[in-house]
């Protein structure tokens, strides 16, 4: 049996705009860095908990013995 992620989720649990508002950041200089932090944190939480934070599509393959 194997699992295959069909497509990465199109959204993240929190947006760059929400992070910037919380941190009171007014410029766009670090948007790509903040986005990569959000994606890394999301993957870390999903790996630790074994759960998806955003709905995802997976394919499960069963091999004949």
TrEMBL record:
CDD domains: gp6 (cd08054). Pfam families: Phage_connect_1 (PF05135). InterPro entries: Phage_CHP, Phage_gp6-like_head-tail, Phage_HK97_gp6-like. Gene3D superfamilies: Phage gp6-like head-tail connector protein (1.10.3230.30). It comes from the Bacteria. This is Phage gp6-like head-tail connector protein. It comes from Orenia metallireducens.
